[in-house]
Amino acid sequence: GQTIAHYRIVEKLGQGGMGEVYRAHDSKLGRDVAIKLLPSEFARDPDRIARFNREAKLLASLNHPNIAAIHGLEESGGTNFLVLELAEGQTLADRIKAGPIPIEESLKLALQIAEALEAAHEKGVIHRDLKPANIKLTPEGKVKVLDFGLAKAFAGEQAEVNLSNSPTLSNAATQQGVILGTAAYMSPEQARGKTVDKRTDVWAFGCVLFEMLTGRAAFKGDDVSDILASVIRSEPDWSKLPANLHWRLREILDRCLKKDARDRYHDISDVRIDIQKAAADPEGMAAQGIATAEPRMKLRTILPWVASALVLGLIIAGAAVWKWKPPEPRPIWRFYHELPEGQQFSDLSRHVLAVSPDGQKIVYGTSKGLYIRSADELTARLIAGTEESTTNPFFSPDGQWIGYYSIGKLKKISVNGGAPTVLCDAGTVMGSWWNEDNTIVFGQWARDIMRVSADGGTPESIVKRKSLDLRDPQILPDGKSILYTSGQKIMVRSLKAGEPKELFSGSAARYFPTGHILYGLPNNSNLFAIPFDVDKLEVTGGGVPIIEGVMDYAIGNSGVLAYIPGTSGGTAVRQILVWVDREGKEEPLSAPLDEYWVFRISPDGKRVALTVGTTPKSDIWIWDIARETRTRLTLEEGANSSVPLWTPDGKRIFYCSSRDDVAFGDLYWRAADGTGVAEKFASAQDRGLWPYSWSRDGKILVLFELTRDPMQADIGTLSMEGDHAMKGLLQEKYNETDPHVSPDGRWIAYGSNESGKTEIYVRPFPDVNKGKYQISTNGGINPLWSPDSCEIFYRSGDATMRVRVEAESTFGKPRVIFRGAFVSRIGTTPWDISPDGKRFLMAKEAKASEVEVPRKINVVINWFEELKQRVPGK
Predict the structure, then answer these.
(1) Are 837 and 830 in contact (CB under 8 A)?
(2) Which of the four pLDDT bands, split at 50, 70 and 90, describes residue 2?
(3) Digit-coded pLDDT (tens) for 152-184
(4) Distance of alpha carbon 49 from its chain centroid, rounded?
(5) Which terminus of the chain has a lower count of CB atoms within 10 Å, N or C?
(6) Is the dihedral of CA 193, 195, 201, 207 positive or negative?
(7) Average pLDDT over residues 119-123
(8) In this structure, are residues 350 and 429 in contact, taking their beta carbons and an 8 Å threshold?
(9) How confident is the model at residue 340 (pLDDT cuts 50, 70, 90)?
């Protein structure tokens, strides 16, 4: 919360011998940075500061995508600090704690580290302190090497380096762990205090690569003297390297870790070239262990589809191998399918991937329909007949049919295309399973788990809903039990009778014939595996992370894994908030990129209540416009909170919050400053309640209501007086959404699909039966009123429309006031108008340069071999 110069401190990131590091917000440039406060004993030495300043100018000249940049050296109030590029993600040291990194992934990371060193060496900059803790792995799978050249900058221009002056061996870093962390990567000449050159980085690089491949340091000891002695005299334990390590990699490590610098690689570029040679040899690509989600960017361009064709040929040839299941581990092969321009995945908050049981076909859902990629084809093709938005694809047991969900219907279609068959009406489907008995089970948001014949018919309920959503059902091999997710718990129960049994916390669970359940965790992009005894219906061990950065996944019974890499925990959407004036001119709000669904400006215009995140875990946050701070308001564990509404005096916020035992949302309120506790204000047994608008006198709260069965959107009211009676306001057979009362209290604007598509209507308020006026003429959603009640605004496609209230009951013609790719959604009103009526607060998707939209499917052949080694079954 403190400010130094024009940097507002957000949080502490770490501390070491080179000083304390903080995340900070640069208010001048509107960006987040890292600032490193220099040690006080260093900062008090004018000569060292002068030397450091000279060195920092050289370091700031480094410009490479794998190097975390130095923006400057600044001073404020007697405090000296570095301004650095903020590298998000975990360190390589943290990554290695999970175990050895697979060979293929190690090569990709090593190439990026080598390229960073190569770029720095070309500028005459030696790192001198390369180690896993100084290497960041961003959520996009990129390497960022930190603290380039700071070792020399701290130590100064010394002919002989004294170990006591090494930045991470200074008086500020006498803790044993910090000392060991640096000594283990020192070259022999560095350990002896001799003059060093770029070959010292080559040595450290070899140490880092060895540790990635083995999960252990190349040189170890109980204290710093033992480690340094090991560096000078001992050899790494080469037996710890993977048994299937490419011979060239073994040679690379040997040449990097030569004790005599004259026998070592003289240039890191030679190391890079040899690693590329190893990576190009298929023998070097077999890998084991946990995999990351993002292949190196260059592989997208240098790995043509010809190479994929060879791999696909291996898939076909390997079918016989899978059939006979030889006892020896089968080789693991990896490649990826990248979506062509013009394609994008459909809603990634639901499943979009499916793999056929034999692993020969992969299907994925897009906004334009289902695409299928077969093992004997180089490209994916659109499945004719599915030219519409589709989600939740799944294969029949024989692999000849694909089931899927589209616009309120559960359907199936032949893998060869044709006319789809409608199986039944369905709510928002959240996971499906085609069973061996030719029935399909499917989960739904806010409904029961249902079963329907694969030939179509009337679905029957097989698991009654006791939480907001039941999803991802799977009939287990015994045919008598079902695995599913309830809220954020993995459950199993008999299909005939008995109470459900909770197994563990998680989501998106699937059982596989290896004896494992794979699953995800809320707000965590990793995929986990846990051993499961399918006969006893109980887990037999703990969960283990096995793949990092997964947005969706599917696995065939043959062991072919397909997954979409990413780290947003279910969706790729990232938005920025912007002020937009009536001419369409934009001014970004400094709030961070996030998943913004609903936002409401406070009556005084100084704060914004935000719904951040999506089901099953969203929260209400308060953004202070002047102070540029975001504070979480809802703190209820396991709750899903959304649709905030300020009270007219701005002191409280009403919102909808659903808990594990509530099908939809109850109405809560809480002090807007976060004090006190959240209180339940109202609930309804048969419907969820979302607060939307106030009567002019503040005595009536207008609600958007969603009934459970059948699912129906209506509008109701809640009295703020007496016994807080609830009444229906608009409860017709069509869906009525987005109710907003005009500030003068005379009208209510809302959306309705009574004409076949959603249009904006206006009725008198509170007596809605005294008239009805259609405002929009070509579709419209998300109405808003101007503060003087003289204008109605709404969204229609990319246009923001305005309709004037011209007389007592006369409304003008809709006019476009500006256009733009701003977010709009039926039923959530994701925009608001400022109290002075001069500008709108709107959301727009971030640019591709700001957040990477997933366009890739990673595929792993024989992945079960890796799973069984990482997590032994029962």
Answers:
(1) no
(2) confident
(3) 544 444 433 333 333 333 333 333 333 334 788
(4) 41
(5) N
(6) negative
(7) 87
(8) yes
(9) confident
As a whole number, mean pLDDT of residues 180-194 equals 79
Among 709, 702, 167, CA closest to 425: 709
pLDDT over 50 at 572, yes or no: no
Please report, as a single letter, which amino acid is at residue 158.
Answer: Q
Omega cis (within 30) before 616: yes
Lookup: tokens for 144 = 């960022």
Rounded CA-CA distance 356/371 in Å is: 13
> Are 218 and 236 contacting, i.e. CB atoms less than 8 angstroms apart?
yes
d(CA 736, CA 149): 62
Q: Which of 129, 201, 472, 738 is catalytic?
A: 129
Does a cis peptide bond (omega within 30 degrees of 0) precede residue 603?
no
Token pair of 412, please? 């199936």
Q: Which residue in the block uniquely carries the two structure tokens 């969820």?
A: 688
Q: Which of 50, 189, 201 is nearest to 122 (CA)?
A: 201
Assign 3-class secondary structure to 637-684. CCCEEEEEEECCCCCEEEEEEECCCCCCCEEEEEECCCCCCCEEEECE
Q: What is the C-alpha to C-alpha distance for residues 165 and 414, in angstroms, rounded to an integer? A: 71
| Helix, coil or strand: residue 323 | helix
Indicate if 47 belongs to the active site: no
Q: With cut-offs at 50, 70 and 90, classify the pLDDT of residue 43.
A: low
Q: Tell me, what's the pLDDT at 681?
A: 94
State the pLDDT confidence band at 309, using cuts at 50, 70 and 90: very low
718 within 8 A of 684, measured Cβ to Cβ: no
- How many whole angstroms from its chain centre is CA 441? 28
Which residues of 476-603 form beta strands (DSSP E)?
Answer: 481-486, 489-494, 501-505, 507-512, 516-521, 524-533, 538-539, 544-547, 550-555, 561-565, 575-581, 586-588, 596-601
Max CA pair span of the chain? 94
Structure tokens at 437: 């008995």
3-state secondary structure of 326: coil
Question: Alpha-carbon distance 337 to 364, whole Å?
Answer: 11
> Which SS3 state, helix, strand or coil, does residue 468 take?
coil
- In this prediction, residue 710 carries a pLDDT of 62
Alpha carbons 693 and 597: distance in angstroms, whole number:
17
The predicted-structure confidence for 343-393, as pLDDT tens digits, reads as follows 778 777 778 999 999 999 999 998 788 999 988 777 889 998 887 768 899
pLDDT 10s digits, 458-507: 999 999 876 556 889 999 999 999 999 987 789 999 988 778 899 998 88
DSSP helix/strand/coil, 250: helix
Q: What's the whole-model pTM score?
A: 0.48
Dist CA 304 CA 298 (whole Å): 11
Residue 637 CB neighbours (<10 A)? 6
3-class DSSP state for residue 144?
Answer: strand
